[in-house]
Each structure stands twice: as C-alpha cells, then as structure tokens.
Amino acid sequence: MSTRPNLACKITQKKVVVMQDYEDLYKILQVHPSAEPDIIRAAHRHLALRYHPDRNHSPMAADMMTKVNNAYEILSDPKRRAAYDQRQVGIVLLSPGQAGALPREADSSLKQLLLRRRVLLIALLLVVVISGSIGAALALGSQGGSTAPLSPGLLPSATDPIIFSDLNWDSAQLQNRIAMYIVEHGFGYPVDTIIGDSIALFDTLVKGQSHVTMEIWLPNSREAFDVAVSEGSIISVGSSLDDNWQSAFVVPSYLIEEHPGLRSVSDLPEYKELFATSATAGKARLVSCITGWRCQKINESKIKAYGLEDVVEAVNPGSAANLFASLEEAYENRAPWLGYMWGPTKTALELDLTVLTEPPYSNECWETDKACAYPTSRIMIAVHPDLMIRAPEVVDFLQRWDFRAESQVAVESWIEENEASLEEGALWFLKNQQSVWREWTTDDVAQRVVSALES
Predict the structure, then answer these.
(1) pLDDT, tens digit, 9 for 90 and up, residues 386-443
(2) What is the pLDDT of residue 300?
(3) Share of the chain above pLDDT 70, in %
(4) pLDDT (mean) for 141-156
(5) 272-303 pLDDT, tens per residue?
(6) pTM: predicted TM-score of the whole model, two decimal places
(7) Which has more confidence, 160 or 447?
C-alpha cells in the first residue's frame, strides 16, 4: 500500500528540504530580517515574558515559548543566523518552474501542493462570484427593479461581527479590547478584529472590511483621513486618547549630560559615531517606526530634508514592543540610543528622555519636505458609514469615548506589574474604573457589562 509523500520531509540523499509550513524565524520574533543583535535580544526578552508559562496559561503559550526560544537560539548566533539566511533565500527563490530540479519525491509533492492551491483559489473565486450575483439579485428584487446598488453593510446577518481594526501597537489593541467587551456584552453585538498596520487597516476601513478604528493619528494620516471623510468613506466620531507628542529624534537624557553639545538635530553629524553600530557602516543608528506606520515615511523624509542621509541610518525595530524594549535595554545599561518615541506611554513617562530640537512645525513645512518638528498629535476614532445604520447606538457610545492618559498609563502599569495580557488589562480596567467607562454608556448597557464581568 503506497503512502502519500510528506511535504515536511527531509530528503537527506541530496540535501534538499521541502517545507509546506515554512516558519520565518524573524516573523516569530517580530523583527525585521536586518535587525541588529540588540533588537533581536530585546524582542526575545519581550516575547519570553509574554509566553512564559508562569504568566500565560493559554493552550498555545507553551508552543509559542518553544518557537520563540528556538528562533532566538538561531538568530542570536551569527554563524547559525548566516546559515539560516542563506537557506531562507534559497527557499524563497524556488519557483514552480524550478521544481523539476528537485528529487522526484520533492518535485511531485511540490507540484501537488501548487495544484491544490490553484484548485482552492478557483473554488473561492467561484464562491465570491456566485454570492455576489445572488446578493445583487436580492437587492434588485427588494427595490422593485431599481438598479441602485445596496451596500452589503445595510443588511448584515444577525451573526455578522462588528470588526475592529487591530493596529499593531498596545494602546490601540488595549482600547479595542475594552470597547469590544462593552459592544459584545453591553450592546449584544458579536465582535472580531482584523490585524495589520496603520496604512493597510485604514484601507480596510474605507472599503468596509472593518467597521471601527480606535486610533487614527493626525497629522501622520491627515491627507488620507481628510480625503476619506470628505468623500464619506469614513465618519469621524471624535478622539480616543489625549493629545500625544512624538518625535523621530529622541535620546535618553543621560546622553545630554555626558555630551552637552548634543542638543538639536543639526548636532547629529558631530555625534554620529556615538550612535554608530557595526551594521550601520559608521552612520548613527536611528530606531525608527516599523514598516506600515505612516511615521516611517515621515521620518525618512525628515532625514532627507535635514541632509542627514550620510549621517543617519533608520532601522526597523519590527514591532512597537521591540521599539520600547530596545530603548529600555539601552537605558538600563546607560548605552547610546537614538530613535522615534511618543507619549503619553508608560515607557516615555518613566524614563528621562530628551527630544532633540527641530525647527518649529508649520503647515507649509509639513506639506513640503517635513523639515520641522512633529506637531501635537490628535488620535481620532473613525467608523465605516454602514455602522451608522446597523448599530447607531454603538456609534453614539464611541462618540462619548474618552480614554484619558491617566487611565491608559494605569492599565499599562498594571499589565507590566502583574505580567498580564492586554485582555486581562482590559478586564481590570472595566472592573476597577467603572466611574470612567460608565460615562460612555447608558445605565442599562453598563449594567449588562457589569453582570458579564461578575459572571
């Protein structure tokens, strides 16, 4: 009896590896492939705390802890990392047309995998086309022959969730979990999230693939935000957090004490060696925003506008957690650090930081080369217009939302002190700061939420 080949097998005779579920070690640690050793070390420390069995009792924690440790073991060793990178490039560059160069078992398995994926894709496309045709017919019949299109959001199923944009930083995810609990248990709507970065998730909101975004940062997203609001693609319902500060050029204050000449962005050429690393070829390393955040492009524009392209090398930390962790590790060791930071956040409030001076903000500057300081940032909540029809009471709730800095920092501190998850932090806030969130809801909604918390 023949057996089906295993795509995860290792074909030792010719040293060829074919993996169906190839795991990217950089994605496991949430770092960029070019991340330097201290970023990788900070990422491992953060994730090891998150998935440690003493603090995380979810069924997946032990498996994730093993993956995180295995990834760090390889990526923290220069020789093993180099070998892994070389092997990864070989796997990524393997195209379907090259399958004939593999041994017979691998060639057959790979072709079977590609064929199954094509069949699945065709089936999914057929489902989409058929569903769209049926939906159009129903809409036409319901309007007595009218050809006016009906937005899918106008007739949602009772089980269709209200989808929140799960942006990839903690304050947005924390606000989501608080709001989602109230929407689900107070208003009775099912909820879900879609994960991504600020650019991608803004697009999903505009298209109606998500319904609520709790943090749209202005001016970072000002151009896209203004266009979407003016076109009616999204509706702004107010602010979520207190006004924030942000800067691309932040250093620990102990560096200013040690180097009093370092005061402004214009001083960086003189001090670039202070921040240089082996990976930046003599340039000052600037730990910037992660790919997909609008501030990444803004910071690149600033570096170019200030004429610092030969002085500063912007690096991607891979995640917001890694950005904070790299600063905290440098601060703990009184090491040089230059990078992007914002507040109010727990890290920014606890550490003594200095923002290097830039020319003051002006609209003219921001609309051209951005050779000026960030302005004070407003953090907005926006919803897709369909939500106004489907759940107007939820929109009213979001209009009353007011998650102040003291509440944000209190929850973040509790999470760190108790080695808790964001979900646990949201529950702690709902249980212990009822006087805050009750202001956002009606009494009957609040009572249902309290009953759920007590059950």
Answers:
(1) 999 999 999 999 999 999 988 998 998 899 888 888 999 999 999 999 999 999 999 9
(2) 97
(3) 78
(4) 40
(5) 999 999 889 999 999 999 888 999 999 999 99
(6) 0.62
(7) 447
Whole-number Cα distances in Å, 338 to 111, 288, 310, 320: 48, 9, 16, 15
Residue ranges and CATH numbers for the domains of the chain are 19-101 (1.10.287.110), 162-243+378-454 (3.40.190.10), 245-366 (3.40.190.100)
